[in-house]
């Protein structure tokens, strides 16, 4: 592995994010070292302004134990993790925060509050997750979706999954968004449903039902990201061999792809949930410090893009 290349794309991401407006972020139940230090580190870089939501005594005890200075941050008391998730979502709904961040609670517990019909943060768009991976030795950051929320998405679901990923790439200021709809092969095969759906998604993009990116599919992983593989297979398209967004057939495929890149190729994976009223920062205890900060940086870019779009809409 070329260690010089490690984290270089994340470092560029962080450098730009630090120049953007700080995002007030409701952090749900930051009651262990990983989640609380992640919020504090991001705040010290000027990425977020955290509102710490959870059992006040427990958060203060963790801060004291690990020598984390939280004196300058608002602390909203909530008795347990479920209440913290509900209160953090409530703060967002009240306009007091423009991002949500997972602390030391299960993802399902936080997302249950996000997707609640009357009190959650749903929009007309389906909620989906994107990994933003910094793969050493690969020229571009790779967005993979959906590997964490939608288990077996339908074609209708995939329209929103693709659009969310495109919107993320544009928020991250990618000069061109090249979307590969992945399958096990690059030809349409009636016996393989993902190839049919890939072809349909590409035609929907042709008809303006998906906007902002260039789509191609079905593509196998090799000819989606390797110019040599695309050339050998004689696939001529602006996406083949150059994709920076990878849409997987289902959660299992996406999860295995993302973890393979992380554990076999040394990639770091930032995580963000889109399709809600605000970006939701999902971090894991297994994340490196760089990956946790990158997840916050991604949310900063998304929040900035939303502000700019809202300003355009008013104008």
Sheet with the most strands: spatial strand order = 3-2-1-4-11-10-5-6-9-7-8
The overall pLDDT average reads: 94
Task: Provide the CATH top-level class of the largest domain.
Answer: Alpha Beta
Gyration radius, rounded:
19 Å
CATH architecture of the largest domain: 3-Layer(aba) Sandwich
Domains counted in the coordinates: how many?
A: 2
Q: Roughly how many Å apart are the termini?
A: 49 Å
Question: What percentage of amino acids are in beta strands?
Answer: 15-25%
Low-confidence stretches at least 5 residues in length (pLDDT < 50)? 1-5
The CATH topology of the largest domain turns out to be: Rossmann fold
The largest β sheet comes out as: 11 strands, mixed
Topology pattern, helix = H, strand = E? HEHEHEHEHEEHEHEHHEHEEH
What report would you give on this structure?
The protein is an alpha/beta fold. It folds into two domains: 15-122 and 276-315, Rossmann fold, CATH 3.40.50.10950; 128-270, 3-Layer(aba) Sandwich (Isopropylmalate Dehydrogenase), CATH 3.40.718. Helix content is 43%, strand content 17%. The protein has eleven helices and eleven strands. Strands 3-2-1-4-11-10-5-6-9-7-8 form an eleven-stranded mixed sheet, sandwiched between helices. Strand 1, helix 2 and strand 2 form a beta-alpha-beta unit. Helix 1 crosses helix 11 and helix 4 (81-93) runs parallel beside helix 5 (107-114). The longest helix has 26 residues, at 289-314. The protein is globular and about 60 Å long. The termini are far apart. Residues 1-5 have low confidence and may be disordered.
